[in-house]
Amino acid sequence: MTHTRFPNLECLALFNESTPASLALISANRSIKRLFCRNSPYDIVNIAPQLVELHILPDLQTLCSSSPQSPLPFPSLRHLFLNMTSPGHGVRVEGFEMLVRTRCLPVGHPRSLAKHSSQVLSSLTVVLPVNPASRVATKQVIHGLHSFGGHSSVLCQENYALDVAN
């Protein structure tokens, strides 16, 4: 089943941990445009470059190009959903800032690191845990989105959304 090809498969949801079988399934089906998974972007960056929508655990460094000469991972990506509610999947402010600068700000923005307008995300959704210990981090993310401008949403576990717009 792992090497089975589904030529019309456009959306795949895998909620198991990353396994060789799940990675082989993703790799064998280049028709997948929307992927919901618990993998790290590092696991799939080289096997699914065609993704347009990605719902994933955070590993922001993988989503950002490290140098101007290197190609941007997931060059067709337009919609990114980061689930930061799992323990051990936090994001440092520097990593989040790099994501915003490389994938969210328009090319003409003075702080943008995007090389082409086609690389800028249409939507970024960040799901944050809601508990007293994470309130400072939540405020930092919201402040970071405000400082860069634009429009994104921050979702919290208790099913309410904070709409962030300048």
TrEMBL record:
<protein>
    <recommendedName>
        <fullName>F-box domain-containing protein</fullName>
    </recommendedName>
</protein>
